[in-house]
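Q: I'm a student working through a structural biology exercise. My instructor gave each of us a protein and asked us to get a predicted structure, then write a short paragraph describing it. Mine is NEMO protein. I'm not confident about reading structure output yet, so if you can add a plain explanation after the tokens, that would really help. Here is the sequence I was given:
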Amino acid sequence: GCPWQLAEARGRLRAAEEALAAKQELIDRLKAEAEEHRATLETIPVLQAQADIYKADFAAERAAREQLHAQREALQEALDQLRARMEAEGA
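A: Happy to help. First, here is the predicted structure for NEMO protein. I'll explain a few features afterward.
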């Protein structure tokens, strides 16, 4: 029974080594994935900061446009009043 036991032990050893190699492969893959996720997570605050800057720029441009529009309306109103007064004085 000795050769049979030796063959069985070798088979178990080979199976254990294969299982260990598969586990190591899984560990390596998980490490690589974790590294990718970490890199992604590090870029998120940078992207968030860029988005905040764009948002602030957009808000500032819109406020400036609204201010210019209000000024233009005020000038148009003043011009209309001046024209009406000149017409009244002329007539």
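A: Here are two points you could use in your paragraph. The chain has one helix and no strands. Residues 2-90 form the longest helix (89 residues). It's a good idea to check both against the output above yourself.
Q: Great, thank you!
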